[in-house]
Amino acid sequence: VHPVYAQMERTVFDRMSVLARETGAINLGQGFPDGPGPAPVIEAAVRALREKSNQYPPGAGLPELREAVCGYYARRQGLEVDPQDVTVTSGATEAIAASLLALVRPGDEVVLFQPAYDAYAPMVLRAGGVPVSVPLVPPHFRYEISAIEAVLTERTRLLILNDPLNPAGTVASEEALGAIARLCVERDLIAICDEVWEEVRFDAKRHRSLMQFDGMAERCVKIGSAGKIFGVTGWKIGWMIGRGDVGLGLARAHQFLTYASAPPLQWAVAEGLTLPDAMLDDQRAAWAASRARLMAGLDRAGFAVLPNQATWFLCVDLAASGLPIRDRDFSERAIREAGVATIPVSALYEGEGRPEHIVRFCFTKPDAILDEAVARLAAFR
Ligand code: GLN
């Protein structure tokens, strides 16, 4: 076994979900909405399964989906993308892996912000790169340009930016994005932009892709996820967008990773992306209502909830809630003793000095489940 995997624990997301299934706990850990997904998108998948081909689609993705992705970005974000530059992947996680395999050369340093999706660092290492961390500090998780500059060296080649940011639930400011873009241009860096939460924003918060900033179109990989946009996380349909040589590298890496993804689901996502915006807006309103319900419930139960602008998650500050317990211990005890699964945020930081007082709760659940979870947590704390 490669040394990267030899010492590795199972990812916290899977560990918590398996434990929740085994113990019958309410699963507010791994991020996914309960419920069937938007009916027109589900119906489109059923229709495609019956009426369209179930054989290998083109490796880069169905042309209809690549077109639909471009139409969606033009409509929702004012972003011009050429369908040639879109490669459909088996979820954003494959897109991250393919991007790193394509773009990391031996010994390249890759800047990661923490907290981060736990897939990033191992994939950087496996691609032959060196992860370099820039911690973001709760509760605001702001990008400090001087902290990024401080870790850049001659060998820095890439940075991975997840905006909106999971697990923090924050959205980078226009100023921060502009400054990161300038840094990428000045230091000749490529940015892998994991923007899977682009549609999951609240309170009229806008999404601005790093790709839209001056000089960035050529030096960005923009990653998107149908699982997040439509709340169908098990479908594992995503995409990555890159221009010129970067795009070519992505396509080459993808062809020998998964080659292609299930065509009925690609058809359904293509159709979903062309439906009227009302569907996405209604879905966002429903998620916002769930967010408000869990926020109010946790607040009533005496938990200090951090500000949230995006994602399906609320973070609770245990220390500020008067609970002097490490997040990992809280999560272990909450799942076994209260029957509620959560994610300890320290699992998404690497190394020394990480915060150990923040726990993440997924709120995209029916009201009755959220109410029951709050009741259990209130009795438990
Ligand atoms: N993004 C998901 C979450 O934060 C995890 C993804 C996964 O488990 N593959 O819950």
Automatic annotation (TrEMBL):
Family annotation (InterPro entries): Aminotransferase_I/II_large (IPR004839), Kynurenine-oxoglutarate_AT (IPR051326), PyrdxlP-dep_Trfase (IPR015424), PyrdxlP-dep_Trfase_major (IPR015421), PyrdxlP-dep_Trfase_small (IPR015422)
Name of the protein this chain belongs to: aspartate transaminase
Assembly information from the UniProt record: Homodimer.
Pfam families reported for this sequence: Aminotran_1_2
Known catalytic reactions: L-aspartate + 2-oxoglutarate = oxaloacetate + L-glutamate
Reported cofactor(s): pyridoxal 5'-phosphate
CDD domains: AAT_like
